[in-house]
Amino acid sequence: MISLHQNISDFLELLFPTICVTCGERLITQEKYVCFKCWSDLPVTHFHLEPENKVAQLFWGRVNIENAASYFSYKKGSKYQQLIHYTKYKGLKELGYAAGRKYGYVLGDSEAFKIVDLVVPVPLHPKKHKKRGYNQCEWIAKGVAEGLKKEVSIGNLFRKTFTSTQTRKNRYERWQNVEGIFGINRPEEFANKHLLLIDDVVTTGSTLEACASETLKIPNTKVSIATLAFADI
Q1: What DSSP assignment string belongs to the chain?
Q2: What residues make up the domain containing 27?
Q3: pLDDT tens digits, residue range 20-49?
């Protein structure tokens, strides 16, 4: 017997059909947020298998990174930019977790990323966290950690200073905006560990550089980087 809840759910689905956040097509049973076709067409980079990839090159001569990679790439206006937008601003934190888990499984194919010890999300300032209600990087990091079968560390790396958005800043302005704004509560938690820093998207790498520079002050710490997306501008 069909429940009242199911009847109401079916009625609401007719009025407000669930659509794919990337292509706008209606989702079918078992699809959530992104349709199977858009997942299969995701412009994956395979950077985790290419040590000298575009993301790694962002940090050359700036900070000592072991490895760096992004799951997929997009250009401004791409439908896959919407995946990041909905994860970051529209409350779809579970989408970040699902995408992170997919990427964690992918990273597991690389010996360079399998050897990390801790997965660490880029933190939000408490004011921004309160306003948004969540940190999308934490959800992505939890997914990556599950896929890689690693522990995730939340709260040890923290943001000391509230900063303005990076969106409209050039490379130098982005660096000035994040220089010295991160701190670490318990350095011993990161000592002698290989950390995997997680962000949603990398453009110039300034925020991740600032995070890495702070963590690398801790004795015998190594840092690798993984982001969901690479903004190929």
Answers
A1: ---HHHHHHHHHHHHS--B-TTT-PBP-TT-BSB-HHHHHT--B--GGG-TT-HHHHHTTTTS--S-EEEEEEE-TT-TTHHHHHHHHHSS-HHHHHHHHHHHHHHHTT-HHHHT--EEEEPPPPHHHHHHHSS-HHHHHHHHHHHHHT-EE--SSEEE-S----STT--HHHHHHHHTT-EEES-HHHHTT-EEEEEEEEESS-HHHHHHHHHHTTSTT-EEEEEEEEEE--
A2: 1-41
A3: 999 999 999 889 999 999 999 999 999 999
